[in-house]
Design a protein that fits this description.
This protein has about 280 residues and is of the alpha/beta class. It folds into 3 domains: about 1-30; about 35-125, Ubiquitin-like (UB roll); about 140-275, Cytidine Deaminase, domain 2 (3-Layer(aba) Sandwich). It has helices spanning about 55-65, 95-105, 120-125, 140-150, 155-160, 180-195, 215-220, 235-245, 265-275, and strands at about 10-15, 25-30, 35-40, 40-50, 75-80, 85-90, 160-170, 175-180, 205, 225-230, 245-255, 255-260. The protein has a 6-stranded mixed β-sheet with strand order 8-7-9-10-11-12. A 4-stranded mixed β-sheet has the order 4-3-6-5. Strands 1-2 form a two-stranded antiparallel ribbon. A hairpin with a 4-residue loop joins strand 7 and strand 8.
Length: about 280
């Protein structure tokens, strides 16, 4: 798999090893650019992202941030590059646009708990509808882990990006998106997923990052029943997985992974917790 020219630049760099003289070589650097998301005529957010699959990103972000409820509420997406970055313009339904305008009015000057637009701690974590957990086998998780590296050309070239992958119940990787930001990679995957016709009940998500609460929240908002992360979850991520009924796996490595929550094995988990 080849990386696109706009996603990486090649720089001359000096490599210093032990006490020897510097050795000059070339290194691929992942490109990171500001991406402005504009809904109808309102600029809502600017994210730092890899300049690829931006229509998928805009759609996934809109869904996971509750700006729209369904992909069909976006009638048009246009990506435009400029001197200072990239603008992605989305045309959304009148109803959703009015709701977004109301949300923005509530955001002005209110940062009570440290999150822009949030007045209280209760508002900091959005309520997500429960999901249907997916019975994912250990073998499927290990198979996906063994395959994921070959689906990350930008990471292999630069060492600077995250990936989010949709895997079937046998562990085959069917869809992957990469980005310098772990949230962006997941949003891109979710946006792309909506166009495939795949069912959320027929697979699981694998991310090459940690499982923060935002990753669980975004996955649950898309209806995914299982999230597997290469690195650790946070306590809030585990709590959210428990609340929505999602299977959450972390520290996924070759031959080993840790199940932090599995609704289908809750009785066994409860016995184990009491025994510790």
């Amino acid at each position: 798999m080849q990386i696109k020219d706009e996603n990486a630049i090649n720089l001359a760099v000096a490599v210093h090893e032990d006490e020897g003289a510097a050795r000059w070589t070339h290194d691929d650097i992942a490109v990171e650019v500001p991406v402005a998301l504009v809904y109808n005529y309102i600029s809502h957010a600017v994210m730092m992202a890899t300049p690829d699959d931006l229509q998928d990103f805009a759609l996934g972000f809109s869904l996971t941030e509750d700006i729209i409820a369904d992909a069909g509420e976006v009638s048009h997406i246009h990506v435009q590059s400029g001197k200072n970055g990239i603008t992605v313009r989305l045309q959304i339904s009148d109803e959703r646009f009015e709701a977004l305008r109301e949300r923005r009015r509530n955001m002005v000057g209110r940062t009570g708990c440290g999150l822009c637009g949030v007045e209280s701690l209760k508002q900091a974590i959005r309520v997500i509808e429960p999901v249907q957990s997916v019975a994912v086998t250990d073998e499927a998780i290990q198979k996906a882990l063994a395959e994921v590296n070959q689906h990350q050309p930008l990471q292999q070239a630069t060492g600077a990006t995250h990936a989010a992958a949709w895997c079937d119940l046998e562990g085959h990787i069917l869809l992957v998106r990469e980005d310098v930001g772990r949230h962006n990679a997941l949003d891109k995957l979710i946006g792309a997923f909506t166009k495939t016709g795949y069912s959320v009940h027929d697979g699981f998500v694998l991310v090459t990052s940690r499982a923060s609460y935002e990753m669980v929240q975004k996955s649950a908002s898309a209806g995914f029943g299982c999230l597997v992360a290469v690195w650790a979850p946070t306590s809030l991520a585990v709590e959210q997985a428990q609340e929505v009924g999602m299977k959450l796996v972390g520290f996924a490595r070759d031959g080993r992974h840790i199940v932090y929550h599995d609704p289908d094995s809750e009785e066994q988990h409860e016995k184990a917790r009491r025994a510790v």
